Amino acid sequence: MFRYVHTNIIAKDARKLIEFYKTVVKCKSINETRDLRGVWLDRLTGINKAHISGEHLLLPGYGEDHPTLEIFSYDVLKEALVPEINRPGIAHIAFEVDDVETTLKEIINAGGARIGELVTAAYPNGQEAVFIYAQDPEGNIIELQSWIDIESNS
């Protein structure tokens, strides 16, 4: 078997970020909270006396238990690089929404921010997409997108 299971975000304030993703991004609690420590975790992470806590949230639009967004926090955090859209590594998580502008306002009202401009792009398959990049309250980058079939709306 090979299947996608989750994406993990390490938060400065896991409870606050969990609430943001539940409220604004419509992720759902599936009662999978974690409070992990022990020799096995030290060995897995390579961190002595590691302690992580947080929760798995069900991503919107999928099954009843997966895939999830795992939001954890360590007792000891390293200083983070400022997330940038062109930094190597995982750059952003994307969500398809009904209304990009409304969702962006919700993100900003919840402590997030906007990156760049809202754009509309025509695709050769007869669809048009509206895109914007935003940041959650801790600076993680979120792409919002909405698609319409322009050929059937003509």
UniProtKB/TrEMBL annotation:
Cross-referenced Pfam families: Glyoxalase
GO molecular function: dioxygenase activity
Keywords noted in UniProt: Dioxygenase, Oxidoreductase
Cited PROSITE patterns: VOC
Domain VOC stretches: 3-147
UniProt protein name: Catechol 2,3-dioxygenase
